[in-house]
Design a protein that fits this description.
The complex is a heterotrimer of chains A (279), B (287) and C (462). Chain A contains 11 helices and no strands. With 279 residues, chain A is mostly helical. The longest helix of chain A is centred in the C-terminal third of the chain and has 39 residues. With 287 residues, chain B is of the alpha/beta class. Chain B contains 8 helices and 10 strands. In chain B, a hairpin with a 2-residue loop joins strand 1 and strand 2. Chain B has a domain of 134 residues: Rossmann fold. Chain C is of the alpha+beta class and 462 residues long. Chain C folds into 2 domains: 194 residues, Jelly Rolls (Sandwich), CATH 2.60.120.10; 226 residues, MetI-like fold (Orthogonal Bundle). Chain C is 60% helix and 9% strand. In chain C, helix 9 packs across helix 17 and helix 16 runs antiparallel to helix 17. The longest helix of chain C is centred in the last third of the chain and has 39 residues. Chain C is flat. Classes of the chains: A mainly alpha (279), B alpha/beta (287), C alpha+beta (462). At the A-C interface, helix 1, helix 4, helix 5, helix 7 and helix 8 of A face helix 5, helix 8, helix 11, helix 12 and helix 15 of C.
């Protein structure tokens, strides 16, 4: 044993703190500030690519008056409404469909191949076909959104149901559960985390589709219609009207709306699966 | 027996003998619920070339000790010496990991994307000590010695878990380490494979005479393999009782039913049980 | 004696039984003389549908080979099997608990799914017959052990998809190789294919397709229900697609069709190469270096919520020409998918691997090269597959809005020019090309990660 005892310590020694510049939040702010700064500079000097975009200062200038413009907020509402309805319809149909495929071998064998051959067709390729088929513009946009989100949700549900540890079923059976009980108490909760993940991914796809559909059918390209509106339309319109800073305003607005919707889903997901938090 | 003893006194390629001295080591870490003292004033001397078994209930902090020796974590008090040289201490809270103290992990850490041979040859190649061809040559030899001829070109995922452990041990030994740090390496194996692995480990030990620091919660395993068994208290970790296992080496499975073995078990089982009960009641989650 | 099961003596020619025995995994390594010995002690029995051959915990005396019919083999609760119930087909061997030294008990319950013929072989007599050739006896027991491991520890997903059997099908050489674990990829594939063809799956699949295409056809071309009337039906589409002289100028025979396809493929190719070349290193660093991540991830994450397609007008403003905006959009979308998944891949690497490498003397860069990159590969390839899909998604949209040539453009233009059939042709073409590109990425991944393919096939892990 050494002659000198180490001084007793009850707490971890104060580590040299990471310093002001080591703190993650500070670093985040710095990097975003640098990015915005570079953007501004590039724009002022008309550098290629990012320099061709309107500078942040002009974007802010264009945005401020809009904050009190009713039309602007109405666009928010329209896009959000489409996202919500499309997404909900995808969930209402996709979740039961996925569960049916995961639980019934026969159903899976009949329907899954058909879905698989339709899947590689990107949702937006369906737009013209949807417009031909559905009587109203809204319904066709809704249909395309539905297609966009449903695959993600379905695949996640199937994957989630299949990955439920078989021992849960065995335990339930040995305790005398009926099929319906097992479905309600084992399969549904077991699938919930995957549904949540599917929804998080699905909502991103949904926003993409909504924006594109609004651009294409609201005035972009060759399809004219009265049922336009929404933030996608706003962006396209700004482009046509050569108000470039508004394009960026629209983009950032959609980004914010998308972020909020993802956050809501994540929160709902955490509420629905409290057991995952305890890990 | 004399050949074995003389080998022991020769030391090994690193020129030292692998004696570890743990002096008044503390480790406190920050958990969500506040600071947790994993190790407190722990002192232990491990002799060069001996098999030292560390026994304790789950979550008591024995892995923390191993991590400190290996250099994966820092310590918050005290010091650890290897052959007189400080690994970590007051000025240097974290040791550098290195090939003189190689770890064999609980769930196995053979690189799944390399073949068994490539895994074994990894150390010397990556240190620049041997060329790829030379390392492969040496690796083949060591693997054959350990009864692993024939699986050189398989991937770890293709062979049984017992074989994987053996490959991992050979991978460690390729580097002529002073100390082999084993963190419950046989925990995930079934009883039959485990007993075969015990004999395999002893065989390897008799050939290489490396110091072995072996963590386990299995008292039988500890007494069977070890020269000395250190029974640790539940968190915070500290040696509660050190047992000298005077059953002579070389040992084989017949030892398990010998009267001396039974006696040693009787001496220690109550101490271990006491700590296990404490850990259970404290609801310790494994670290 | 179960009245539903009775021996039927010479109901089958001996040659047939000998062939059958030789074709089983268990006996295929034996010499002809030994097989004859086994055939001598085997007793042919016939069992009625629903008869129970034995139950869990019954004493185990006999081994069985299925000659004709189908048998249900259901494990009892205490076994380690992941697949609890198997269906045994002709040529399958079961009941090998009889080979374990007494007292052996059954751990499964076996029921007949149809009227079945079985070869019953007494375990004790079998061992006696093999006693003359200890090598052969060892071989049989080794195969037994292998069958046990492979049959009942196959991961559930594999069993569901492939209905992996107890070792049957293919030539004796294939079975011997399978038993020795040396079976090659092609044999495995051919063998699985034959198994698949015998299960109900392909027929149900056919039912699904018939229902789908049938409904489409009937609704749009025959009964012309509601809005379906304006949609082109499958017959029209196929006729046009394969028409050497298409009404609307677009079919497999017109060069213009391939011009469009190639335009789209070319753009996706550029975008994919750029996004992979940038995304993978970026993702690797994001995962590996905390500093790098804290400085760059925030910008990455702030731009991410903006849907890629919202960039379309800005892209047109920023980039000159027709091609660049579309390629930019596609690259952006792919980049996100690739970088994110790569980062997740690095973060998913178990911490023991870099630690083990450090113990073995590897420097930081060596760890990056030998551990981080291969370790992240599975996620990287998942990311690449996703990125290909996302690329097509964005490309089609981009082409619709601002393109000249390309499948997206084709689809939209056909709509505008009221050439509805071409819309469907365009959609199908995009689907096919998209699928093929995804499959190519997946194959590349399988090739680069041989170790993982083999590991998954053996149901292994750590």
């Amino acid at each position: 044993m050494s002659a000198v005892a180490a001084p007793p310590m009850a707490r971890p020694p104060k580590k040299k703190g990471p310093g002001f510049f080591g703190h993650p939040v500070v670093r985040a702010i710095i990097s975003i500030a640098v990015f915005v700064g570079l953007w501004e500079v590039a724009s002022r000097y008309s550098l290629p690519w990012i320099g061709q975009a309107p500078p942040p200062t002009k974007v802010v200038d264009a945005w401020v008056p809009l904050l009190t413009d009713q039309g602007y907020w109405y666009s928010w509402f329209q896009s959000s409404r489409r996202v919500l309805s499309g997404f909900l319809s995808a969930m209402i149909i996709g979740i039961p469909l996925g569960l049916a495929m995961a639980t019934s071998r026969v159903f899976n064998d009949i329907t899954f191949p058909v879905f698989e051959i339709l899947r590689p067709v990107p949702p937006l390729a369906w737009v013209p076909a949807a417009i031909i088929f559905w009587p109203t513009q809204e319904l066709s946009i809704g249909f395309v959104i539905f297609l966009g989100a449903i695959y993600t949700i379905m695949l996640n549900v199937i994957g989630g149901a299949r990955s439920i540890d078989i021992r849960f079923f065995q335990a339930a059976r040995s305790m005398g559960s009926s099929n319906w009980d097992i479905f309600r108490r084992i399969i549904l909760p077991g699938v919930l985390p995957s549904i949540v993940v599917g929804c998080e991914v699905g909502i991103g796809i949904t926003w993409n589709v909504v924006v594109a559909a609004e651009m294409i059918s609201g005035g972009g390209g060759a399809i004219q219609s009265s049922a336009g509106g929404g933030l996608g339309f706003f962006i396209w319109n700004s482009y046509i009207g050569a108000s470039y800073p508004l394009i960026v305003v629209g983009m950032i607005s959609i980004g914010i709306a998308g972020y909020i919707s993802s956050a809501i889903i994540r929160k709902l997901g955490i509420l629905a699966t409290p057991w995952l938090r305890a890990r | 027996m004399s050949a074995v003893l003389s080998q022991a006194s020769q030391g090994n390629a690193h020129g030292g003998k692998g004696a570890i001295r743990i002096e008044h080591v503390d480790k406190v870490y920050e958990a969500k619920s506040g600071p947790v003292q994993a190790v407190s004033d722990c002192s232990l001397d491990i002799r060069a070339g001996e098999i030292c078994m560390i026994v304790g209930p789950s979550g008591c902090g024995k892995t923390t000790l191993l991590n400190a020796i290996a250099g994966f974590h820092d310590i918050t008090g005290g010091a650890i010496y290897l052959d007189g040289q400080m690994l970590c201490g007051p000025d240097r809270p974290k040791a550098d990991p290195g090939p003189d103290r190689v770890v064999v992990f609980q769930n196995g850490a053979l690189f799944p994307w390399k073949t068994n041979l490539e895994n074994v040859a990894f150390g010397p190649v990556v240190q620049g000590k041997l060329s790829k061809a030379q390392a492969a040559e040496k690796a083949r030899g060591l693997m054959a010695d350990a009864g692993l001829a024939g699986v050189e070109h398989n991937y770890p995922g293709e062979v049984s878990s017992g074989m994987r452990r053996r490959v991992e041990i050979v991978r460690a030994l390729m580097n002529d380490p002073k100390v082999l740090l084993l963190d419950e390496p046989f925990r995930a194996l079934d009883q039959l494979t485990k007993s075969v692995m015990h004999e395999a480990l002893l065989e390897i030990y008799y050939k290489n005479k490396v110091t072995i620091f072996f963590i386990t919660h299995d008292l039988e395993e500890a007494i069977f393999l070890g020269h000395r068994v250190a029974i640790m208290t539940t968190r915070p970790c500290r040696p509660k009782k050190i047992l000298e296992v005077d059953i002579p080496h070389p040992r084989d499975y017949a030892v398990l039913t010998s009267p001396r073995f039974r006696e040693l078990m009787e001496e220690t089982v109550s101490a271990v049980h006491e700590e296990a009960v404490k850990a259970f009641e404290a609801g310790e989650k494994e670290m | 004696m179960n009245p539903k099961i009775k021996p039927v003596g010479l109901a089958r020619p001996r040659k047939e039984l000998v062939e059958l025995l030789r074709g089983t995994v268990l006996f295929s390594g034996l010499s002809p003389a030994l097989i004859e010995k086994v055939a001598d002690i085997a007793v042919l029995e016939r069992a009625q549908k629903d008869a129970v051959l034995y139950r869990v915990d019954d004493p185990a005396r006999d081994l069985y080979v299925v000659v004709a019919g189908q048998v249900n083999h259901a494990h009892g609760p205490a076994t380690q099997a992941r697949v609890l119930t198997k269906t045994m087909q002709p040529g399958d061997v079961f009941g090998w608990a009889a080979l374990i030294k007494a007292p052996a008990r059954r751990f499964a319950t076996v029921t007949m799914l149809a009227d079945t013929e079985l070869l019953r072989i007494s375990g004790a007599e079998l061992m006696q017959a093999l006693a003359s050739d200890p090598e052969a006896a060892r071989d049989v027991l080794a195969r037994c052990a292998k069958m046990i491991v492979e049959d009942f520890t196959v991961p559930a997903w594999l069993a569901q998809v492939q209905d992996v059997p107890a070792g049957k099908g293919g030539s004796p050489m294939v079975q011997r190789q399978a038993a020795a674990g040396e079976i090659g990829a092609w044999e495995m594939f051919a063998y699985r294919l034959s198994k698949w063809a015998k299960s109900p799956t392909p027929y149900l699949m056919l039912v699904g397709f018939v229902l789908f295409f049938g409904a489409w056809y009937l609704l749009s071309e025959v009964f012309k229900v509601w809005r379906f009337a304006s949609l082109p039906g499958p017959k029209t589409v196929l006729l046009e697609w394969f028409n050497p002289n298409p009404t609307y100028g677009m079919s497999l025979y017109t060069p213009d069709y391939y011009v469009h396809i190639w335009s789209s493929i070319r753009r996706v190719l550029y975008a994919f190469l750029i996004s992979t070349g940038l995304g993978v290193p970026f993702g690797l660093f994001l995962g590996w270096s905390k500093n790098f991540r804290e400085f760059t991830f925030p910008v990455f994450e702030t731009l991410r919520p903006i849907p890629v397609l919202a960039w379309v007008p800005l892209a047109i403003v920023m980039f000159k020409g027709q091609e660049s905006p579309v390629i930019f959009l596609t690259t952006l979308a792919s980049f996100y998918a690739t970088a994110l998944n790569t980062m997740l891949g690095v973060q998913s690497i178990d911490e023991s691997y870099p630690r083990a490498a450090a113990c073995l003397g590897a420097s930081k860069w060596q760890i990056f090269r030998h551990i981080v990159i291969p370790g992240a590969l599975p996620f990287i390839f998942t990311g690449l597959q996703i990125s290909v899909g996302v690329a097509w998604f964005s490309l089609v949209a981009g082409e619709m809005v601002s393109g000249e040539y390309g499948l997206g453009y084709l689809i939209l233009a056909s709509y505008v020019n009221v050439q509805y059939v071409v819309i469907i042709i365009g959609m199908v073409s995009v689907g096919v090309v998209g699928y093929v590109s995804s499959a190519l990425v997946r194959l590349a991944g399988d090739y680069m990660m041989q170790w993982r393919v083999r590991e998954l096939a053996l149901g292994g892990g750590r």
